[in-house]
Amino acid sequence: MNDVFPSEIARLTAGQPFTENRTGMSGDRVLMFPGAVLKIGGSPTKNAATAQITRWLDGRLPVPRVLAYQQDESHDYLLMSRAPGVMACDPDYLSRPDALLPLLAEALDMLYRVDISDCPRERTLKAELQEAAQRLEAGKVDMERTEKDTFGPGGFESPEKLLHWLNDNQPPLELCFSHGDCCLPNIFFDGSRVSGFIDLGDAGIADRWRDLALCYRSLKHNTDGTYGKVYPGIKPEKLFDFLGIAPDWDKLRYYILLDEFF
User: Is CATH 3.40.50.880 what the domain over 7-81 is classified as, yes or no?
Assistant: First the structure.
């Protein structure tokens, strides 16, 4: 690769080897250096938001340190320290539900305990529905990645019909600090502790059930063979037992359906 980075990024990564990580679905390039992660995006919006909220979270949650954020004519570059530990979808944790489920519940509780009184970002449901409409109009809804029962027999006729339903059936909100993309690859564990949260570009004040829905779905898909391997010892609904709450299946379904547009 003949990557040419902006000045500060180049200075901080000079002479260091790197590999490319393709685990995520954001569309950004992710380069892994020995002690840092570089995200390269085609638009400044998401990485700029990630830098802002990650800096605000310093001291509030275990998050990476923002080492540098720069832009050039066509890309933006976010360099952060690496999160310690491994992703929550690491096979070692997926094969040990007695370790995984309490840690996931702890991670979710950590998010909700964050004081939102001076949080710099809101991710209102109204704004997300507007963004969903914009993505639909721009042809950015990936129909190959939707849940198998979202469209077709027993589901919605089209994304347009789904968006109309989402607008008409907005649930009451339980506002808290929300990760925004609370999937297992974005939560890190180190032994018996939650060691990091990454990919915070959609984080801010939002409904608690948005995170619960995406975490539940991610837990389900990481254990039911969707990604290649079945982990039969895990029942995703048991997550709510560790959280000490009853699952609100209507809200869970709503936010999983909303995420079909992102």
Answer: no
User: What pTM was computed for the model?
Assistant: 0.93
Q: E-strand spans in the chain?
A: 19-20, 29-32, 36-41, 66-71, 76-81, 86-87, 175-178, 187-190, 193-197, 204-207
Are residues 236 and 216 in contact, defined by beta-carbon separation less than 8 angstroms?
yes
pLDDT band with cut points at 50, 70 and 90 for residue 1: very low
Separation CA 107–CA 196 (nearest Å): 9
Q: Where are the domains of the chain?
A: 7-81, 86-261
Taking the C-alpha atoms of residue 223 and residue 100, their distance in angstroms, rounded to an integer, is 12
CA distance 76 to 6: 9
Cβ 67 vs Cβ 80: under 8 Å:
yes
224, 147 Cβ separation under 8 angstroms: no
Name the phi and psi angles at 190, rounded to 5: -135, 100
How far is CA 230 from its chain centroid? 22
Catalytic residues: 181
